[in-house]
Design a protein that fits this description.
It is built from twelve helices and no strands. By secondary structure, the protein is mainly α.
């Protein structure tokens, strides 16, 4: 296992989308960018993500041997056992960091944060092990990102405001549409298009936010542009368009995070979320996002 191989297995180009999800959870729950727990949470949720990507390759090794033989395990660059060990190890370490970051004044970890982190780990493992041929896998993948937001939020607050849950719901709808597309990536085509209607939900929510927070319109316009670009690729369906649509929508999660942050008048975090989008797009040119 060398660094280059680890970066490919972990799809590290998508990590900025995890970081902006953490920003949403922390800031909308009442935390700030200066919160001392934020760096630990960024590390913890990054470990969950990278560990989950490792496990995805380990569980998918049979499928990849047929459809993506260039992936690290079927090509013989690393053993499935080593990837399983490192993947599960990162999930455990991520939960340990969540426990440390969520400690109260008495030194006791917040049980809600631990429960959300444990639910995240369980959702990751269940998705990785059962997503092939599972009609509910887009929902399960969406729940993984919901638990990222909730884990971060519960580390800074014991009770969550409605805005956190609404942001998590918008993210869930984005992930359902995205994951449905990703399930068809190896076919390089899309079947029925009705699941893509879930992508309209975040747009409607963004309009509602923008009516009371005008700065949201800018972020929402960028989000809509990202959606239209991805959907245009799906409509054209030339070779390679489906994978490009997938990675575009993955990066678009950060723009959606910018929308909900701007809707809460958190302009600086919203700008950072847009930077996260740009960073994801740039990194995807270096390390494949799928």
């Amino acid at each position: 296992m060398n660094l280059t191989l680890a970066l490919r297995l972990g799809r590290i180009s998508n990590l900025p989308t995890v970081w902006t999800n953490v920003l949403v959870g922390v800031v909308l729950a009442g935390g700030t960018l200066a919160d001392a727990r934020l760096p630990a949470l960024l590390l913890a949720l990054s470990l969950f993500y990278v560990g989950g990507m490792f496990l995805n390759d380990a569980f998918d090794r049979g499928f990849d041997a047929e459809h993506r033989p260039e992936r690290p395990i079927p090509s013989g660059q690393v053993s499935a056992q080593q990837v399983f060990t490192l993947g599960f190890g990162q999930l455990v370490l991520g939960l340990v960091v969540v426990a440390w970051a969520s400690r109260g004044v008495d030194g006791t970890p917040a049980w809600r944060a631990l429960a959300a982190g444990a639910a995240l780990a369980a959702a990751i493992v269940f998705y990785d092990a059962h997503h092939k041929g599972n009609a509910l896998s887009p929902l399960i993948m969406g729940l993984c990102r919901v638990f990222v937001v909730l884990t971060a939020a519960y580390c800074v607050a014991s009770a969550l405001p409605a805005v956190v849950m609404l942001a998590a719901g918008a993210l869930l709808c984005h992930l359902i549409g995205l994951t449905y597309i990703a399930k068809q990536e190896h076919l390089d085509r899309i079947g029925a298009l009705w699941p893509l209607g879930f992508l309209a939900v975040p747009v409607v929510y963004g309009v509602v936010l923008a009516l009371s927070a005008p700065a949201t319109w800018l972020a929402l316009a960028l989000y809509v542009a990202v959606l239209l670009f991805a959907l245009g690729l799906l409509r054209r369906r030339a070779r390679g368009d489906v994978p490009r649509a997938v990675v575009t929508l993955i990066a678009g999660m950060s723009v959606l995070d910018a929308v909900v942050l701007a809707g809460a008048d958190q302009i600086v975090p919203a700008v950072l979320a847009v930077v996260g989008f740009a960073l994801t797009v740039a990194l995807q040119r270096w390390v494949s996002g799928t």
